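Changelog note: in this version the structure field was regenerated for every chain. One regenerated record is shown below for reference.
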Amino acid sequence: MKNFFAGLMAKWKFLVLPALMKLGFWGIAIVSIADASTIPVPMDALLAVYVWNDKPHFWIYCVMASVGSAIGGLLPFGLGRAGGELFLLKRVDRAKFDKMRDRFEKQEFLAVMVPSMLPPPTPWKAFVFAAGVFEMRVVPFMVAVFLGRMVRWLVLSLLVLKLGPGAVTVVGGAIRDHAELVFGGLVVVLTAIGVWAVLKRRKNGDATPA
């Protein structure tokens, strides 16, 4: 089985991926769908190559890659919705599960969008799976992924246009070297958003006439 998967990845890397690269806009979309759904792909590096080779149309590659991620993310999202609740309940008790659900629902859009903005090693599929488990609606889910990915890849593209394809290595190295700060910042942002949402709901509730 190990040899089978090794052979499959080799074919993907040396046969399928080069063929998709020749498809331009459609190629990056297909690769992005594969990356978001099943097969991990170095999307930042691939996008950098596309952008560097076709600078005037960099924004189209960002759009197509973002659309691909939104579509591909439906697979882990669907798995989470289909059986993720049972999966989580085997690992946490019902009270903790309900607390996780309430917390997610208060900030579900940004809980998907913010991780979608961040490059590896962000555990993006875990957030997508959670969105399915906690029954986020499909359209807001896809919009959140699209917007998050769009921000991420527009920033990357602008860096590539200014610094060259080596910008991917610079950004990736910075993320790896400061992973704790990145994830710490993510926690702070999501916590702040949650507090803001709660305060806004309470304010709206107080403003409602009796």
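Spot check on this record: The first helix runs from residue 2 to 21. Residues 4-9 have pLDDT under 50 and may be disordered.
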